[in-house]
Amino acid sequence: MRGMRYYLGLLCLMLSISANGSDKVTLQLKWTHQFQFAGYYMAAKKGFYKDAGLDVTILPADPNNPNTFDQVLNGQADFAITHSGILQQRVQGAPVVALAAMLQFSPYCWMVKNNSDIFQPRDFAGKKLSKISSLENAELLVMLQRAGLDYQSLMAASQKGGIEQWLAGELDAVQVYVTNEPYTLTLRGVGHRLICPQKFGLNVYGDILYTSQAMLKNKPDIVERFYQASLKGWRYALHNMNESINVTQHDYAPHKSMQELAYEADVLANYIQPPGSKLGGMSMAKWRLIADLYNIDQDEFDHAFSGFMYDQQQSEGIELSWMLILAIILSIACVPLYIGLISNGRR
After folding, report:
1. Other residues' Cβ atoms within 10 Å of the Cβ of residue 240
2. Whole-model pTM above 0.85?
3. pLDDT at 317 over 60
4. Of 2, 176, 314, 329, which has the most beta carbons under 10 Å away?
């Protein structure tokens, strides 16, 4: 009887210790903390990552160098957020895998003053623009090129500078994130207009959650658990906006006001899950359109796309965490031992 108790206790202790262990992973954001990443914050706050057996560290980006590819490919981060230029990286040989597109449209726009004579892409000809990147926010450049503007002329017209130079009249148009600079300038009473790629037929993904091929190959279960828990966090964030804003402000972004975060949440909700879309959803058809915008030919796309878009292992409705599975195993293993213990006691 004592032997039976000993083995029962030992088994339960081993399974308990196993269940309390967590896989440590790092998520590298593409910007500083704000509501833009609230789904990941809520996955941590509500214990969704913990329930999935994960201990997740969420790192903000360096505003002076927000490129996240180096961190993932060098193994400094297991997961990261980036823009639609990830497809270009894949074509150029970077072993990256897109897990989910958390923004179905690009949040980047050109901002002009209310009295500007710029109303559409072709009006940018001969104007002074803030510095353009062919990788980050490339859709802003592509929008102008599709209107017939010459690439070399655009690059020559672009110059260093931001909001203050724009306010001083040194720039005619400046690149902005739809929820950041426009909100600040509205508070300052500065009239402005936004000219966004989405309005001119450039529907590219934004805020793409991704990982490396090595991570997916070596630790597919961790990738799946992180993927599912992150989506669960985003569902919770969208259905509990006030709570998510409070958590974002209190735990991650005390430098931002509640009003600013509420504005950001209200605007981004339409980008995260517009009517008829699936949360985090991606399609080969839309990636093919994005490839066209980046002048990636069909053969390059076909070669690069194989293995590029994550094929989740289970439907979103099935979210059995590994801790729950261990609990089931524990129950099954302990029941016969308990019955044996009772039987021995009756003798």
Report:
1. 15
2. no
3. no
4. 176
Write the CB contacts of 106 (distance below 8 Å, at least 6 apart in sequence): 83, 84, 137, 139, 196, 197, 198, 202, 203, 204, 205, 206
* Residue bearing the bigger pLDDT, 79 or 8: 79
8 A C-beta contact, residue 303 and residue 90:
no
Residue corresponding to tokens 């804003």: 245
DSSP structural state of residue 172: S
Indicate which CATH number applies to the domain containing 81: 3.40.190.10
Please give the Cα distance from 208 to 220 (Å, whole number): 18
Q: What percent of the chain has pLDDT over 70?
A: 82
With 0-12 CB in 10 A as exposed, 13-18 as middle and 19+ as buried, what is 323?
A: middle
Strand 96-103 to 79-82 pairing: unpaired
For residue 101, give the 3-state DSSP assignment.
strand
Q: Is 282 helix (H, G, I), strand (E, B) or coil?
A: coil
> Are 100 and 209 found together in one domain?
yes
258 in the same domain as 173: no
- What stretches of 73-169 adopt beta strand conformation (E)? 79-82, 96-103, 108-113, 129-130, 158-159
In-domain check, residue 169: yes
Q: Could you read off the pLDDT of 150-182 as tens digits, one per residue?
A: 878 888 888 888 899 999 999 999 999 999 999
Say if residue 112 is in the same domain as residue 100.
no
